[in-house]
Amino acid sequence: MNIMSSLYQHGTLAMLMGKQLQGTITVAELLTHGDTGIGTLTGLDGEVIVLDGEVYQATSDGKLNHITDKDTKMPFVSVHFNQPTRRLPFSETSTDTLSQQLKSEKLTNIFAAVKFHGDFSNMHVRVAQKQETPYPSLLEVATNQSEFQEKDISGTIVGYFAPSVFSGPTAAGWHIHFLSDDKKFGGHILDFEGQNIDGTLQIFDEFRQHFPLEDSDFRDMSLNLEGLSDDIATSEGGKQ
């Protein structure tokens, strides 16, 4: 199977719910599996955007860093090699309309990626605050996250749609991040309205789930599966 049709994910959101926030993959290794994607750094330190093979980190103090140290580690990240399936068939979109505008693509039971540039009249993001050991769960962190909002900002949205059946490994529905053109603003998107949209959709026929088998804390992790999907949805604040 062509690697270009694959979505590669290291770690799971269930692991983050299970307080496994330690970094278990380096940027160097990650970039062998994709040039586009989203994730977070050790300790849930901010929101990561991978764009054109470069790694950027939005931090909870409102700053944005270009990550050039290839030994930087991440506990959870999804990437793919950008090879679009088709161009997006609209020039305006928002968190409320994106799914409906792509209804004809029948995404319900498949993984897909969007990558599009636009001018955003509203961009509302949140950024996780860095945690120290002993780590809390993702759900605990989600109750105290930094939120930022910008009006009339241009930039790129990158992220994924995942089927509901995969809630646990990842977030069901849309999980998308933003990076401004000037590389000064970004984060996990809570709400947006965009115009002059120009971008692509990529559909995957393979989902590759990678686990940190050499990490003893992960191997010893015990999860309470009851309500896991609901807790992830609450933590991510995403939309179907």
UniProtKB/TrEMBL annotation:
Print the keywords alphabetically. Acetoin biosynthesis, Decarboxylase, Lyase
What EC designation does it have?
Answer: 4.1.1.5
Segments traversing the membrane = none
Q: Which domain of life is it from?
A: Bacteria
Which pathway does the protein contribute to?
A: Polyol metabolism; (R,R)-butane-2,3-diol biosynthesis; (R,R)-butane-2,3-diol from pyruvate: step 2/3
Q: Under the GO molecular function aspect, what terms does this record hold?
A: acetolactate decarboxylase activity
Q: Name one GO biological process term.
A: acetoin biosynthetic process
* InterPro entries cross-referenced by the UniProt entry: Acetolactate_a_deCO2ase
Catalytic reaction list = (2S)-2-acetolactate + H(+) = (R)-acetoin + CO2
Q: Which NCBIfam families match?
A: acetolac_decarb
Give the protein's recorded name: Alpha-acetolactate decarboxylase
Q: Which CDD domains match?
A: acetolactate_decarboxylase (cd17299)
What the entry lists under Pfam families is as follows: AAL_decarboxy (PF03306)
Family the UniProt entry places it in: Belongs to the alpha-acetolactate decarboxylase family.
